[in-house]
Automatic annotation (TrEMBL), chain A:
It comes from the Bacteria. This is Peptide/nickel transport system substrate-binding protein. Keywords: Signal, Transport. The keyword DNA repair does not apply. SUPFAM superfamilies: Periplasmic binding protein-like II. It is found in: Cell envelope. GO terms for biological process: peptide transport.
UniProtKB/TrEMBL annotation, chain B:
One of its GO terms (cellular component) is plasma membrane. This is Peptide/nickel transport system permease protein. Gene3D superfamilies: MetI-like. Keywords: Cell membrane, Membrane, Transmembrane, Transmembrane helix, Transport. It is found in: Cell membrane. The chain crosses the membrane at residues 95-119, 131-159, 171-193, 247-268, 280-301. Coiled coil: none annotated. GO terms for biological process: transmembrane transport. The lineage of its organism: Bacteria, Bacillati, Actinomycetota, Actinomycetes, Propionibacteriales.
Length: 515, 312
């Protein structure tokens, strides 16, 4: 996959974003040759600030869960496969791959890449990395469940540059799983995370959890040495991030609020790079509990949401309305479905039919994610117009993700960017570990399993499309908005892409430069 | 004097023991535990359960506490449940920044508050007294975060004179990092402290012996330095010891706004991630510091103005 192809994919996705938001931003894609700022410059120190995790921050790439960790690891390590701007797998350390006819055994050809200590990447490194992730005595390795499909005993090195990975069950989406978080390739025998050695564009200098990591350009990087000389990945809370990027103490600030974006755009000191609709905000209804075990009530609630207003108020207009589905703009998203509109009258008649009118229900939320409580409160007002009383209950922010699985009947839900099939695997199958809507349908599971083994991409897409239609009309997910993902950059920064988090070009600093 | 110190020390040990039990119980009452914190929709419930076993969180609370307490008695603060490193390292790393910040603030606040207090006290209800009172009161009435936001907006973002945060900064290389945080902490404490010194000055000036000394014609300067100041300092020193908590509250805000990796930040992190050994360790250190400061303050006051009631 060439860089050009990536960029084209990006342009297709973000379409008109730069103009729409009045940004001269997002250079590096096209860019007029005459503009000196568009010509990459060499050298300099680049400081990127992320939300900190204190002592939670780790150097071990297989334990990552925070954006700041992911950015640090991305600088030093790489995966076999990454996700493009539409969350479709693109080759990285694996130059190409080929499944057998059943999509059960996959052959990956490795790139000619060099580790920071000068050794070449081999198939043994890949096998070691995957078995390190799978190690059952280390439950904190995040990719354990997504890579559970691997049958490690039957995986083998064909030659130093070819590795054959065998699955316990066929899966046409396997490359995407290798692109998930915590799947980095480390050197065979890697034991001490405090001495990182990867194939990435930067080599390790120093790390202090909750504060900073410093890394230096790695000149032998297979994808062309980075333009900047030194990379600092720093940790700070939202207010400090804003001050740092405005005050010139940082060149890049990740995950900024819509409020900050508004004030920043009024000034001159920073530029906002906005990835359109890159995550999901939703309310989730538990389909096995009253009143939401009744499909009419679920539909009524979906009809009662004033999505545009939720986006305008809760996301300060920086987002798109959602259509009760995850993954707008991603591979396999059925873009042809009509947008769900508000219809209070139809909702009322559905509620009357279900005997749910003039009753009080509860919505379970917490201050766990920006906008959760606001959205719940606003939604309670919206359903009140149809005679439904909705009481907002706020739980503990720290344990919300866990509580939501078991508590309440209606709650707040947010999801980061991931491929649509992975969202299904995580949340919508009977055995899914994060099935917050308790959507357990054997026929849905079977449909998904049947789709996943189709090696023909179009056939697979068609199957996934059907499943998503069912979900949109009968499922428990009331998706109301796709917030933009906002990043602030200093005036000299070039080459920052407007892409969803968790994709190849997000937090990727080997392609940025300082004009 | 010695028995007084011994009494105080014995009391302190009891206080510490009670405190550590309290902190343990309170953190245990919070919903969730350290293993749940890893449940960020990336680890499955099964993985979290295995992790809980590894961390020993499935053991009874009593057992975990007595283990911890035994370790503390042998001088070991234990291991962080989140980072896996020694708690002592976290305490040490976070204490540095906060200590520097606090000492720098005191270095500015104390001389200024004493000077202001005496100036106000000797001019009770005069124009200068009222002017200083209004300014310091007004300063202390503004919440710390407002002061911080305004100062950053003006001096960092507008004028560009001072760094807006400690991000990526090195205190040794650029002590200028201290200016804004100290300025924020300054407002609150200088007001409280100078008012105490002022009150002490007034009391001392009206005291029988000072009035007598004045009648005897002791020069004003000598009167102030030898007789008034030591007495006026007593409420000041006691207030200074109490300033600890005010300052800690302020430090919390200041650390968050200026991204200072200090004590307050570590404590909040510890509570949020249910990292009980870290919370315990930090609280213990904080408690010891508070006890020492109060003890020190009492001893200083006792030395300044030996009075028997202080001994009780």
């Amino acid at each position: 996959m060439s860089e050009a192809l990536n960029r084209r994919g990006f342009l297709g996705l973000a379409g008109g974003l730069a103009g729409g938001l009045g940004l001269a931003a997002v250079t590096g894609c096209g860019g007029s040759a005459g503009d000196p700022a568009a010509r990459p410059q060499q050298g300099g120190r680049f400081r990127a600030v992320y939300a900190g995790g204190g002592t939670k921050e780790v150097l071990d790439p297989h334990v990552q869960s925070l954006f700041v960790d992911i950015a640090r690891h991305k600088a030093m390590y790489e995966k076999l496969v990454e996700l493009g701007p539409d969350l479709k797998p693109v080759p990285r350390l694996a130059e190409k791959w080929e499944p057998d006819a059943q999509a059960a055994t996959w052959r990956f050809t490795l790139r000619d890449a060099t580790f920071h200590d000068g050794r070449k990447l081999t198939a043994e490194d890949v096998l070691y990395s995957l078995s390190r992730v799978a190690d059952p005595t280390a439950p904190e390795r995040v990719a354990q469940s997504s890579l559970a499909a691997l049958d490690l005993r039957r995986c083998r090195a064909v030659d130093p540059r070819t590795v054959e990975l065998t699955l316990t069950a066929p899966n046409a989406e396997f490359p995407a799983l290798l692109a998930g978080i915590g799947t980095q390739i480390v050197r065979a025998g890697f034991k001490d995370p405090s001495k990182p050695v990867g194939t990435g564009p930067f080599s390790f200098v120093s790390f202090e959890a909750g504060r900073s990591m410093v890394a230096r350009r790695f000149d032998e990087y297979w994808d062309g040495a980075a333009r900047i000389e030194e990379l600092h990945v720093l940790s700070a809370e939202a207010e400090a991030r804003a001050n740092a990027v405005q005050g010139g103490q940082a060149e890049y600030a990740n995950d900024m609020t819509a409020t900050f974006a508004r004030t920043a755009e009024a000034g001159r000191s920073v530029r906002i790079v906005a990835a359109k609709g890159s995550t999901l905000h939703a309310f989730v209804m538990k389909v096995d509990r009253p009143p939401f075990d009744n499909p009419d009530v679920r539909m009524a609630f979906k009809l009662l949401a004033d999505r545009q207003r939720l986006v305008d108020v809760v996301l300060a207009g920086r987002g798109e309305v959602a259509n009760d589905l995850f993954g707008k703009g991603y591979q396999y998203y059925p873009a042809d479905l009509p947008q769900r509109e508000r219809d209070v009258e139809r909702a009322k008649s559905l509620l009357t039919k279900a005997g749910a009118l003039n009753k009080e229900f509860e919505i379970f939320t917490a201050d766990a994610s920006a906008g959760f409580v606001e959205a719940a409160t606003l939604f309670a007002e919206q359903v009140a117009e149809a005679g439904v009383k909705l009481k907002v209950t706020t739980g503990s922010a720290q344990t919300y993700a866990k509580d939501l699985l078991t508590q309440g009947t209606l709650g707040s839900h947010r999801s980061g960017a991931m491929p649509i099939p992975q969202y299904f695997t995580d949340r919508l199958l009977s055995k899914s570990p994060f099935n917050v809507t308790h959507w357990k349908r054997p026929e849905f599971d079977a449909g998904f399993a049947a789709a996943q083994v189709l090696t023909d991409e179009d056939a697979r897409a068609a199957k996934y499309g059907e499943l998503q239609r069912t979900l949109r009309d009968e499922g428990g997910i009331l998706a109301w908005g796709h917030p933009d993902f906002l990043v602030a950059v200093g005036p000299k920064v070039q080459g920052v892409e407007a892409v969803p988090p968790n994709t190849l070009d997000s937090g990727r600093f080997d392609k940025v430069w300082l004009a | 004097m010695r028995s007084y110190a011994a009494q105080r020390a014995a009391l302190a040990v009891v206080q510490l023991a009670v405190l550590s039990v309290l902190v343990f119980v309170l953190t245990s009452l919070l919903p969730g535990d350290a293993a749940d914190q890893r449940f960020v929709e990336t680890l499955t419930p099964d993985q979290v359960e295995r992790m809980r076993e590894q961390l020993g969180l499935d053991r009874p609370a009593i057992e975990r506490f007595t283990d911890w307490f035994g370790n503390v008695l042998s001088g070991d603060l234990g291991t962080s449940l989140i980072s896996g490193g020694p708690v002592l390292d976290i305490v040490r790393a976070s204490l540095g920044a906060t200590l520097v910040l606090t000492l720098a603030t005191l270095a500015v606040v104390v001389p200024l508050a004493v000077a202001l207090g005496i100036v106000m006290g000797t001019r009770e209800n005069g124009r200068l007294d009222r002017a200083i009172t209004s300014v310091t009161l007004a300063l202390s009435a503004i919440p710390d975060f407002v002061v911080a936001v305004v100062l950053v907006a003006v001096f960092s973002l507008q004028l560009g004179w001072l760094p807006a945060t400690w991000i990526g900064g090195d205190l040794l290389a650029s002590p200028v990092l201290l200016v804004l945080p100290v300025a924020v902490l300054f407002g609150r404490t200088v007001c409280l402290l100078s008012r105490q010194v002022r009150a002490g000055t007034i009391t001392a000036l009206n005291a029988e012996y000072v009035v007598q000394a004045r009648r005897l014609g002791v020069p004003r300067r000598r009167l102030l330095l030898r007789h008034v100041l030591p007495n006026a300092a007593v409420p000041g020193v006691q207030e200074l010891a109490r300033t600890g908590d005010t300052l800690l509250g302020g430090v919390l805000v200041v650390e968050a706004i200026f991204a200072i990796p200090g004590f307050a930040t570590a404590l909040i992190d510890g509570v949020e991630t249910r990292d009980v050994p870290v919370v315990q360790g930090l609280t213990l250190v904080l408690a010891v510091a508070a006890l020492l400061i109060n003890l020190g303050a009492d001893l200083v006051c006792n030395r300044l103005v030996p009075r028997t009631e202080l001994l009780r």
